[in-house]
Design a protein that fits this description.
859 residues; mainly alpha; Rossmann fold; Arc Repressor Mutant, subunit A; 7 domains; five-stranded parallel sheet; 42 helices; 11 strands; transcription; Tscrpt_reg_LuxR_C; DNA binding
């Protein structure tokens, strides 16, 4: 199908009736294809149409000479033929129409000839021109001289049309999510939609699942660079820089856009269809168009030019919108990494952060205004909810807590108010006694005494210990009807999860009533994700969290976003997918979202887990920043996995090279947590101790617990570490293959490389070559990784796209200086990449890196 068949038919009809048509649209909008199809209709009708293609101003009249048919031998027009002679040639041919492709690139002299032909012969002119109305109706516009004339503006295609176009192009059914994402990135421009689909298909980001084409986590491909460069090529430096500035800043309000690039430039970009102005319920925003430009600029290498633009954006946002500035500065100064499911492009991150910041500012102010006007408990609950999930005003909250009269509240409202009051106290370092006092009511015949009893018990679980008899206390309360039973079941489920009996929690969490309020529903959902993690269903936990993170963003649900981001972080970290772990928390970090209203807050545990991952990735500076942020939180976190500071102390010790001491610190932390009943958190610390320093005796004792919390993944890892200690290459290969099957590419790669070294050193080249082939397959991303697959450039094994390309160049025999020239980076940067590659793969020698060349050739 051709997406603009209706325009083709209309244009042909107008032209045959003697009306000239100017076809205007952005690049890749289908102007050339429309003219080609109109020409076919002329041919089918037995009519003559001459196609003139603009080739620039360097060769005046050459476009006309090339378009006209050759004259008989001996009657050739001289190269310097005058415009009048060319007009005579047209008169001899008597075309029914003149079709001008790229009219904006046609030289002035050729336009003069076409104008004379039109006026003298009445020939219809169909001109396709790039949308550049900023030039005005000048020499290169049909509307200046043609009469009658109609202008056809090629608007964006609808989502439905893009969906049909992709199904026709790909030759099969297309998932709505795929067509929706491509429609968004292409702004409905058909050429870009096809280019994005083809590039993503070439990179393996689009694949067939049964009979349906589905999308992976990312659609970007370096093959798209040419398309976007072609879009921008014909604009001057000032225009291109303005587009880059807005692309990196994301959607901003008009005042901010004016401060960034100036009103005249905004109008220039708008007239050239490079930006789009749109309105929300709250404000008017401006963003680049097509939105895929954001991806293009975000994937450009870091440079002095980029840093200058980022500095300008940051300084401007610091004045226009202070809350959004840190997000821009944090994310746009970092060279792009391969994107997994959680990673939002630099285009999107500031927008999402801004959305949360603006929403928080407006909604919390509205809630406080309502409370001041009504002093109602319902409005007080709204105020408390907001201030427990973001930046807070302690004096304002204290006023609300002191001046809200609970006398007119329903029992359900009083229960929620008292719960949030207790969470406020605990989030600010208050004592258990103070929090419990806030929960208790002196109202006689209170309807929710069972819920209060369960919440009072939960405070002890969080701050003191999880008593072995928790079930006997909570199970009877969970049998209560209505809200009481719902809340008590949630607390009981947490008891099972934290004591590492998560499988018993899932049936309880499935009993969540459909009509429960949003806050309680979110609490249940976060607990369910944590239960998946506690059962060793790490992929399920990550998938569950991913869907709820996106829902939290769409619904601007701050508590839900904080809780599910934590589940995603610990699940992905346990799977060894460290880049995606960092990505999973970027929205929370950018928007300063907290989850202090959760029954068991996870903010500190999120920061600790990210810090551990950052240290394992060698990003110690980032780890320090995360730990500093964690230290600003007064909330406790010992009960949940990785929420105890002992794990970060041990991680720092390990990063400094003292692995035995780190392992001992992990084990001491695990023993302390287990003594308090926090078995799941203790198991996590024990596993970290074995990662830091493998102890066969500890591993043998811990193995049954490892299989509970990590399934075959953890068991395979322990087997691999034991095989490594025993220099058993066959055992290493078995463990690596199991890890690969569990999608733990990082650890699989390390064990494979150790096995290769042992085989080679023993002279077993056959097995060494066999395993090298498996490694190349692993690096090339040949595994079917489901929705968690990254790009085929080894993102699955922890290598960034840049590192994967360097592996290929090393395999081809290039030296560091040659590689630096290819990327336009310093030799020192190349050396840093090589160190990271060695750290991630476990190889030492350059020839071993070369052995992983994707082309399968060992150099």
């Amino acid at each position: 199908m051709f997406a603009r068949d209706s325009e083709v038919t209309r244009i042909f009809r107008l032209a045959t009736e003697g009306t000239s048509v100017e076809i205007v649209g952005p690049r890749w909008s289908g102007r050339t294809e429309i003219l080609r199809r109109v020409r076919q209709l002329y041919d089918q009708a037995g009519l003559t149409a001459i196609v003139v293609r603009g080739v620039g101003d360097r060769l005046p009249l050459e476009a006309i000479r090339a378009a006209l048919p050759l004259q008989p031998q001996g009657n050739t027009v001289a190269p310097a033929a005058s415009p009048s002679a060319l007009v005579a040639r047209f008169a001899a041919v008597k075309p029914s129409a003149i079709l001008i492709d790229d009219g904006d690139q046609l030289d002035d002299a050729s336009w003069v000839v076409i104008e004379q032909v039109h006026k003298s012969l009445g020939t219809a002119v169909l001109g396709g021109t790039l949308q550049r109305p900023s030039k005005g109706p000048g020499d290169h516009a049909l509307i200046r001289f043609a009469h009658p004339v109609v202008r056809v503006s090629l608007s964006e295609l609808s989502l439905e049309t893009v969906h049909d176009l992709l199904e026709d192009h790909l030759g099969g059914a297309v998932a709505p999510s795929l067509s929706g994402r491509i429609h968004t990135k292409s702004a409905g421009i058909p050429g870009f939609a096809i280019a994005i689909a083809d590039a993503a298909l070439g990179e393996g980001h689009i694949r067939k699942h049964g009979a349906v084409w589905i999308d992976g986590p990312d659609l970007w491909s370096s093959d798209l660079n040419g398309a976007f460069e072609a879009l921008l090529l014909s604009y001057d430096v000032e225009v291109r820089e303005a587009v880059e500035t807005l692309a990196l800043a994301g959607a901003v309000d008009l005042l901010t856009a004016r401060a960034l690039i100036g009103q005249p430039m905004i109008e220039t970009l708008e007239q050239n269809a490079l930006v789009r102005v749109f309105s929300t319920q709250r404000q008017t925003l401006i963003a680049v168009s097509p939105p895929g430009l954001g991806d293009y600029f975000s994937h450009r290498p870091l440079s002095a030019h980029r840093l200058r633009i980022v500095e300008k954006i940051t300084e401007t946002l610091a004045v226009q919108s202070p809350a959004a500035a840190p997000s821009v500065e944090l994310h746009l100064n970092i060279a792009p990494e391969p994107r997994g499911r959680f990673l939002r492009a630099p285009l999107e991150l500031p927008l999402v952060a801004r959305m949360f910041t603006e929403s928080y500012k407006i909604e919390s102010a509205a809630a406080h205004h309502e409370w001041e006007a009504t002093r109602s408990v319902a409005s007080a609950i709204r105020v408390l909810n907001y201030h427990l999930t973001g930046a807070h005003d302690a004096a304002l909250v204290d006023q609300v807590l002191c001046d809200t009269d609970l006398g007119q509240a329903t029992d359900r409202e009083e229960l929620t108010f008292r719960y949030l009051h207790s969470r406020w106290i605990l989030s600010h370092g208050g004592s258990a006694d103070a929090a419990k006092a806030a929960l208790r009511t002196d109202r006689e015949l209170f309807a929710h005494t069972a819920a209060l009893d369960a919440l009072l018990y939960a405070i002890g679980m969080e701050l003191d210990e999880l008593s072995p008899d928790y079930e006997s206390t909570l199970a009877p309360l969970a049998e209560a009807p209505g809200t009481d039973g719902d809340i008590a079941r949630l607390v009981l489920a947490y008891g099972h999860i934290l004591s590492s009996r998560a499988a018993e929690a899932l049936p309880l969490l499935e009993q969540r009533p459909a009509d429960t309020d949003r806050m309680l529903a979110a609490q249940y959902d976060v607990a369910k994700g944590l239960a998946f993690y506690g059962c060793g269903r790490l992929a399920d936990a990550a998938e569950w969290a991913a869907s709820h993170v996106e829902k939290g963003i769409a619904d601007i649900e701050r508590m839900s976003l904080a809780g599910h981001s934590y589940v995603a972080v610990i699940a992905l970290a346990s799977l060894g997918r460290f880049d995606e772990t960092m990505d999973a928390a970027r929205v929370v970090l950018s928007a300063s979202v907290t989850g202090a209203s959760l029954l068991f807050p996870t903010d500190r545990a999120t920061m600790y887990t990210l810090a551990i991952v950052a240290m394992r990735m060698g990003r110690n500076t980032a780890a320090e920043g995360l730990l500093e942020r964690a230290d600003t939180l007064d909330q406790r976190g010992d009960a949940v996995p990785f929420g105890n500071k002992g794990v970060t102390t041990a991680a720092a010790t390990s990063a400094n090279g003292d692995r035995p001491k780190a392992a001992a610190t992990y084990l001491a932390t695990a023993d302390a947590l287990a003594a308090r009943g926090y078995r799941l958190a203790a198991d996590g610390a024990t596993m970290l101790s074995l990662i830091a320093e493998f102890d066969p005796a500890v591993a043998e004792t811990f193995r049954p617990r490892a299989e509970v919390i990590g399934g075959r993944l953890y068991a395979a890892y322990l087997d691999g570490r034991l095989a490594s200690m025993q220099a058993d290459p066959d055992g290493l290969v078995r463990a690596a293959r199991m890890l690969r099957a569990e999608h733990a590419g990082d650890e699989a790669l390390r064990f494979f490389t150790q096995a290769i070294t042992i085989y080679r050193d023993s002279g077993d080249e056959a097995h060494s070559a066999e395993i090298r082939a498996e490694v190349r397959s692993l690096l090339a991303g040949d595994d079917s990784m489901g929705s968690w697959s990254g790009s085929r450039s080894a993102a699955n094994v922890g290598l960034t796209s840049r590192e994967a390309e360097i592996v290929q160049y090393v395999a081809s025999g290039l030296g560091n200086s040659d590689i630096a020239d290819r990327f336009g980076i310093s030799i020192r940067t190349v050396e840093t990449h090589l160190r990271n590659i060695r750290k991630k793969t476990g190889v030492v020698q350059r020839e071993d890196i070369a052995g992983f060349g994707f082309d399968g050739t060992r150099r």
